[in-house]
Amino acid sequence: MIFTRFKRAIKIALANFSRNSMLAITAIFIMTLAILTVSIFMLLSFSTNEAAQKLKDKIDITVNFKDEASEALIQQLKNELSTRENFKSIHYISKEEALKNFQSRVNVKKEIKDIVNPADNPLPRGLQIGAVDFSQFDFVSAVIKKPQYAPYIDSSSYEDNKQLIQNVNTITKFIKKFGLVLSIMFVLISVLVVYNTVRLTIIFRSNEMEIMRLVGASTFFARAPFLLEGFMYGFFALIFSQLIIFISIKLLTSFGSVTIFSSLLTLIEPIYAKNFWLLLVVQLIVGTVIGVGSSWLSIRKFVKL
Fold it and tell me: What are phi and psi of 70, to 5 degrees?
């Protein structure tokens, strides 16, 4: 009995869908934009987080010493920094190693390389500090500014690297906030469109609804077709949004080498594959909430049995 009623509800929902095809297409189009916006927001959030983390992992602090600094003082500073377990590594760079690194650089002209030699080596000794957590950079800055070390410090990359990380964090936060606002806006628009689509369907079927009321039709039988209609909008919107995302990633990746988004696209494709099922579940939830939720709101107001 229940199966028969459900089957009838599906038939009515399909009839409503085909009868009001233009309204249905409009609702699906708007819902596709909403689900697409939420999906892109998620992918960009995952990608920017991973890109920021990779950048943070690559960034370290280099502290260069003046020639007057003794080996004992450099070792003392290294030992003090080593008291923290948060650093990936603290590597001492001698003048010989600094020269070797300089000579191996490909972006330096040979004439300049020839000027710097073991007999006349102006390159400073240094400590290369790899931090696990960006918050530890402030600890390094505080230590090297101590009175016993500061006079012997020639330079450090702390400020430049700190500014770079802050810029990345600012961009990441902006993308998340902008994506969230855009997603909410499209979701609200979708709710409004589906709500009015179902409302118009109810109005078009007002005579049928009156007959149902007179013959004593159950509340479920009267409301189920509209809820199923809303679910269908969400389901089709999910399929279209997945197709658009998949095709877009494939197309953009194939042209990635000639676009400014190539580095971000190299992250988005594996992240999309890695989070495919999570993305699909979120899309299904968003589509169902918008479609069924909007239909339910419209039914509560306009269906009286």
Answer: -80, 160
Q: What residue type is 119 in one-letter code? A: A
> Domain extents for the chain?
2-55+166-302, 59-165
Q: What is the pLDDT of residues 19-71, one digit of tens each?
A: 777 888 888 888 898 899 888 888 888 888 887 777 777 778 889 999 898 99
Q: Which residues pair with 93 in a beta bridge?
A: 126
Query: What are 198-244's pLDDT values in tens digits?
Result: 788 777 766 666 666 666 666 666 777 878 888 888 899 999 999 99
- Tell me the whole-structure pTM to 2 decimals: 0.69
Return the bridge partners of 65, or none. Answer: 153
Sheet harboring 126-131: ordered strands across? 87-93, 126-131, 60-65, 153-156
Write out pLDDT tens, residues 175-184.
Answer: 888 888 888 8
pLDDT at 285 over 70: yes
Instruction: Give CATH for domain 59-165.
Output: 3.30.70.3040
Pairing of strands 126-131, 87-93: antiparallel
